[in-house]
Amino acid sequence: MQKFLLTVDRISTFVGTAFSWLIISLTFVITYEVFSRYALDAPHDWAFDIMLQMYGILFMMAGAYTLSKNNMVRGDVLYGFFPQRVQAILDLTLYILFFLPGVT
User: Fold this and answer.
1) What is the pLDDT of residues 24-65, one digit of tens each?
2) Domain ranges within the chain, ordered by starting residue
């Protein structure tokens, strides 16, 4: 089981690193659209859809990478007082509640 989890972590790290380059593409698309819209007065219909799709992909892939590195932002006011088992159950429940609907 430990070997499987390490393999999943390696895949998550690779995918997260690969998709981190999408930020550069997203920045260029946004910059091009802003320049085109305001300087040339020629907005594009496709730009918003492309930016939205790229951001969605980036959010989901970066989320998986961040989970594998355990760098999620938490409200630790009460979370730190719970035993590890309760923290794991809470994490799993919240991931299913918030992360999976974003994927579908």
Assistant:
1) 888 998 999 999 999 999 988 888 888 888 888 888 788 777
2) 1-72, 73-104
Q: Which residues contact 37 (CB under 8 A, 6 or more apart)?
A: 43
Contact assessment for residue 33 and residue 47, using Cβ atoms and an 8 Å cutoff: yes
In the 3-class helix/strand/coil scheme, how is the chain assigned residue by residue? CHHHHHHHHHHHHHHHHHHHCHHHHHHHHHHHHHHHHHCCCCCCHHHHHHHHHHHHHHHHHHHHHHHHHCCCCCCHHHHCCCCHHHHHHHHHHHHHHHHHHHHC
Structural contact between residues 103 and 60, judged by C-beta atoms closer than 8 angstroms: yes
- The closest of 49, 61, 64, 60 to 8, measured between CA atoms, is 64
CA-CA-CA-CA torsion sign (9, 11, 17, 19): negative
Q: How many CB atoms lie within 10 A of CB 30?
A: 15
Q: Are 15 and 64 in contact (CB under 8 A)?
A: yes
